[in-house]
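pasting for ref
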Amino acid sequence: MSRTPLQKAFSPIKRILASPIWQFTRSLSTAILTPLRFSYVTGHFRSSLKNISVNKSGEFIPWYSYPAIDFIINKDFSWKRILEFGAGQSTLSWGKKAKFVKSFEEDFNWYNRLKSKINLNIDLV
């Protein structure tokens, strides 16, 4: 079994430390590094900095849970019509994936901000 670069980097430390100390160090490292890696890989880190929902590449994604995004990301919606209540990043994201998007937005200021960013296949009302 091949080891990851992180496992190789920690290998000398594992040999030096006593087993209980090593286990604690490993658990602590995992508890810190795993959420950081998830945040980077999913785009959560970038979303937090920009205060909008984007993926790692900066493209708009729906403000859904990451398992829900993973479920829909590779589905073909090119022939689907989407009805949405509350416009936002999801509207812009659906506009790239679906044939047509109808989105209802009640906040007039938010409506005006989005209006300039929408594609022709999006009807924002």
